[in-house]
Amino acid sequence: MKFLIIDDDLDFRKLAIHHLHKEFPDAVCTEITERHEFDAAMKQGGIDAVITDYDNPGLDGLEVIKEAKKLDPYLPVIMLTASGSEEIAVEGMKLGLSDYVTKHHVSRLPVAVKMSIESLRLRKDYDNTVSLLRTSEERFNAFMDNTPVVCVIMDEAGRAVYINRAFERAFNVTPDKILCKPASDVLPREIARISLSHNKEVLEKDQAIEIDQIIPAPDGDSRHWMLLKFPLKNAHGKRYIGAIALDITERKHLEEKLQAEKDTSQSYLDVAGVIIAALDSAGNITLFNRKGCEISGYTPHEILRKNWFDVLVPARLKDELLGIFQKIMNGGIAEYTHFENPIVTKTGEERIISWENAVLTNKEGEITGMLCSGNDVTERKHAEEERERLREQLFHAQKMESIGNLAGGIAHDFNNILMTIVGYGNLLYDELKNNNPALGYAQTIVKTSMRAAELTKGLLAFSRKQPYILKSVDVNDVIKHTSDLLLRLIRANIRITTVLTGKDCVIMGDGGQIEQVIMNLATNAQDAMPEGGALTISSDVVDIDNIFLMTQGFGNIGRHVLISVSDTGAGMDKRTKERIFEPFFTTKEVGKGTGLGLAIVYGIIKHHSGHIHVESSPGRGATFNIYLPLAQKAVETQPLEIAERPAGGAETILIAEDDRDIRKLLKTLLSVAGYRVIDAANGSEAVDLFTKNSHRVQLVLLDVVMPIKSGKEAYLEIAKIKPGVKALFLTGYDKNIIQDEELIRKGIEVIMKPIIPANLLKKIRETLDK
Questions:
Q1: DSSP tag of 709
Q2: pTM
């Protein structure tokens, strides 16, 4: 503490300092007697209290009070005097004296100092507070009276306790007309009811609410107000409702005008037959017309302001398309004026859209987004894909037809060659004696040639130029033979196992076609096991009864041979299982499958009056179960033995064969058998020769397919020349190729090449003897 002591009596100054140090041990006391000393001390500042004598020759006590208070109104000044004159005290108090102490009671000085310091501190704090409040109130009033926003404070009953000038102007009222008046006295009844309801909501929730309200103006017009009401409390906890309101009538009119213009523009966009969309630079949708909503399935509310790439782009394409869009927005690449990609609809369906795009820029030329128009080309694309699929099917069908024709042609030519080998082999066999070691060679040639003939039957069946040859077949034998072939054809990392039943597994069928079924299924199984696995082929005999029909949904009642082909491959989902037997359906890559393998399998099984069923699921392999009717007939075996040559004859036979070697063979064979032979190289020559020799020709032996004139055409002309003439046909194709009603009615038979000479001679003899 720092005290300034003014007194001309040194002893009294010492006494005063003594008493001050008792109360304020660290006090610094400055003793002065002259005016200039006082001025210097006051200028230096930092004084906590001034203690002055009333009657000081160098410096008057009342003057000290005046000067001290002038410099600091809150500086305590205590007067010491020898007399206790009340007049002096009153005069000092008027000038701002803090206390008055007589020298006879100097011990009271510390108390007077302490009380004066505290009293003036409190007075200073009070004055500062009052000043701050006055300033705050002035600021508040200045703000509230100059703001264009209408402001009002209401008590809990809804009575206004404060309104600002904007309120007075807006509603043409003075405070005396509205303050402390019930809401029902100053507002229309319905608006008063709504206002009190809002006040109640604010107080109950103790939070602000925003209100959009139409309130009548003094001129009778209605104005649109946006109100914000909020809870208030004063220093004593009393609750009020504050409200600020902004007249947004003009803004509403502008918004309505803009909305009308927008609706008009939107109607133009909505009548467009294409999607029209706008995106901002982040990919958020800012415009989406009616066509876009129809195709996507989203409403405007659901789609606007959503991100295009999050909502409409398939997940597999999102990164790629978003990357392109961002580069366009950054100016990194030129815009894609035309683009085609799918969108995902609300239901998850994908639609293919052909887009025309243009970037949007601001007046500074900066890219701000993209405008897009899109045409739904899904149906067109599907039609194009369907046309392409049909074109591929046609191509495959034509290719298969070409292959079939080639196979039929090869089989025909091969049969002609085999005919020659078999014929001369038989002639050689007849010429050799029993003890000739070459006899076995001739027999082997004939037998091997007949096995080769069986191969050509398969080619003809493939080319559809020979029907299925149904006979009793042991399925176990077919599986054994096929598995032997598979061991050489299937990759080494696939283990092949056969599990054959000990029961009789005889069916009426074409063994070669059943082999093809197993081969096709095994090939598919191999493709399903690229890393290797197990392939199991099994057989069994099962009964299909009513319970089987009800649980499985297919089949015919009776005993069936069951062929099962199982693999440990990738398996199939339900959708794939439903389509695997469709022609041209394939899950393989382009160029690695025709989609015909299982369709052929299905067709073969149906031709055998059977059923095929697949059991499979993804990752669990597949099992194809084939059900074929069990036959009671024993397996037919035809040993390849060379028959003894039957009786010949002396009749004249006209042969017509375009293959020189076969023609020579037939002539030799018939001549050796005693017949007289006239040979022709084609159908036209045969007709000419028959015309010249019709009186002595008893039988015509005609090849079906010949140049210039076919065997059938030649026969019809010959029959006109000599009705009832006997005839036989030879063919390397399916013998049914010329089986029309007219020839069947005449009892003309067709012999398939190659034929064992003995069988041919037997058939000729039978025909001549009819």
A1: S
A2: 0.41
